[in-house]
Amino acid sequence: MTPEQAFDFIFNELKKAEKKHPAWTYDAIHASAILNEEAGELTQAAIDFTYTKDHAAEKQKMIIEAAQTGAMAIRFLCGIDNYHPDVKHFEIKP
Ligand SMILES: [Mg+2]
């Protein structure tokens, strides 16, 4: 895969994510968690690729999850000026 193809995968996943979830959080911790959730799915796909027999299907999952991780990194960066440290004060009190 070329860098151009990789960027195309990431851009396509970014557009899908923005359509499905137009809003992005003001909470930097939440935003990083979303990114890490995708990275975790990539790790699972890599484990499945390594330890299962359907390598072609798992390779496709790795591509998708890597692209989704890249897309969430872009969303994280695009939100960088909107994160508010004070968001942690919006807590539910017992
Ligand atoms: Mg995913």
Oligomer: single chain
Number of helices: 3
Shape: globular
SS elements, strand count: 0
User: How large is the radius of gyration?
Assistant: 16 Å
Uncertain regions spanning at least 5 consecutive residues = none
- Which structural category fits the helices and strands? mainly alpha
What is the element string, with H for helices and E for strands?
HHH
Q: What does the average pLDDT come to? A: 92
Bound molecules: magnesium ion
Give the amount of beta strand, in percent: under 5%
- Residues in helices, as a percent range: over 70%
Spatial gap, N to C terminus: 52 Å
What composes the largest sheet?
Answer: none
Descriptive report:
The protein is mainly alpha-helical and 94 residues long. It is 70% helix and 0% strand. Helix 1 (3-20) crosses helix 3 (55-78) and helix 2 packs antiparallel against helix 3 (55-78). The N and C termini lie far apart (52 Å). The mean pLDDT is 92. The protein binds magnesium ion. Residues 38, 41, 65, 68 line the site of magnesium ion (MG).
Please outline what is shown here.
It contains 3 helices and no strands.
Give the arrangement of secondary structure elements.
Elements: H1 3-20, H2 28-51, H3 55-78
Helix pairs in contact: 1-3, 2-3
Bound molecules: magnesium ion.
Residues 38, 41, 65, 68 line the site of magnesium ion.
